[in-house]
Amino acid sequence: MDGPNVNFKFLNNLQQEHGELHGGRQLISVGSCGLHTVHNSFKTGFSAWNIEKLLRAMHYVFHNVPARREDYTKLTGTSLFPLPFCGHRWVENLPVAERAIEVWPKLKEYVEAVRRKELPNPGTSSFDTIEAANKDPLILAKLQFFMALSRTFCPFLKKYQTDEPVLPFLCRDLTELMMDITPFKLTKLDTDDQKNWVSAGLTDIGLGAESVLKVLQSKSSNRVGDLTVLEFRRDCIMCLSRIVKKMQEKSPLKYPTVRQIGVLKVSLTKELLASVASARTRYRIYLDEERRKREGAMRGLKRKALEDELEELKKKKGVLTVVCASLQKDADQLAEQAENKSKTLMAEMITKSNTLRRRFKEKCCELKNVESELELKSTELRHMP
After folding, report:
1. pLDDT (tens digit per residue) in 13-23
2. What secondary structure does DSSP assign to 124-151, as a single string?
3. In the 8-state DSSP scheme, what is residue 357?
């Protein structure tokens, strides 16, 4: 569909219409897509390191530039290039990060060759990003940490990217993925409070990142100190904190339906299985009953409107009958009175009498039309179910 705000607006409209049709009943809501929440949480967590910017730059610096790709291949002796980064599926960029780590030594050769002016400077923002990352001694450790978290989250995403009914297992798996506490406590956990953080030395940053740090600390030249390593570990903790906080904002765990559905704790009796098997039939019967109620209500409204219209026609017929009788009577009286009058007065009274007779005929015609319409409406009412 569209963006999350449009989707939520659609859901609100659907809930309102469903409530109007089914006596205020609402559809079960478990929040926005949990998969997108995980991806967006990853994006928030690694925003401080600009991982996205670097991985995009590594791909675009050679993308659709044959001459630059040829220079890179001749210099490094490899035709392996970085993969494109997907900005809306962060966790699924695990292969992108793996390829980035694989080609990083060759990419450093390319950057150094450009710096020595052995190759032309691309002069692009992508190259500037790569050059800046090359000066960061911890860049490989950051990519390794990104890979470690991706490997942790990927099984969860693959399991729940399905049309199968897996909602009863979402609470348990999502809680285990984030932290080993109760789901409700997890939604209330203050991730900004450093009292809830583990110590930097005990932080699990993955074997890859640990190996990179050991190599950096063992170097005789450009050695990374203990303080730098400690700061990196604290950055990893902050990254994890941001991920959990973002997931808390729109996590399905906020909804009681997700936390309290426990299909594994329900005794599957014969009665329950029979009830579930006939649930669809009962639902259809319910919908048919509701439809008949609506149709009955509509027929009642239509009958009431027709009865009101008949009543108005009867009143109109009565008024027209009285008017016709009055006009005929007045016309006859004027004609009789004109017989004994002088010619001038006789002519004037005969003219008035004729005028009244014309109005009498008009009203009689109108009365006839009302009677025809009244008969038609009466027949329609008699045949109405």
Report:
1. 888 888 888 88
2. SHHHHHHHHHHT-TTHHHHHHHHHHHHH
3. H
